[in-house]
Amino acid sequence: MAVELHDDEREGLRVLRDAVARALDAVCSFEAPARRLLAHVTVARLRSGDAPRERALVPTPQLAFAPEAMTLYRSWLGPTEASYEALASYSVAPPAVA
């Protein structure tokens, strides 16, 4: 289950993703996937074949936040649980006021 994050009209999340991809490419030959960005937070994972108890979910509330840092994680999916490895952390500057 994932919660989709909706970006503002300035496409700040796409701009941030592109900047992170360029920084990663500079240090480790990272090539960003060519697919459309789906900004999300993973809330839960189900094993193959499992089904959620309820299909209907309440609407996601409108929230806003200004992060101070971003950490890129790699997930390692195991037979019973996932583990996460922090690959890099970056300070996130507040957006410029126009």
Task: Give a quick account of the main beta sheet: strands, pairing sense, barrel closure.
Answer: 2 strands, antiparallel
How many extended strands?
A: 4
Instruction: State the helix count.
Output: 1
- Strand line-up in the sheet with most strands: 1-2
State the gist of this model:
Helix content is 17%, strand content 26%.
Question: What does this protein look like?
Answer:
By secondary structure, this protein is α+β, with helices and mostly antiparallel strands. The protein has a domain at 2-65. It has one helix at residues 12-28, and strands at residues 2-4, 40-42, 69-77, 82-91. A two-stranded antiparallel ribbon has the order 1-2. Strand 3 (69-77) and strand 4 form a beta hairpin. It starts with a strand and ends in a 7-residue tail after the last strand.
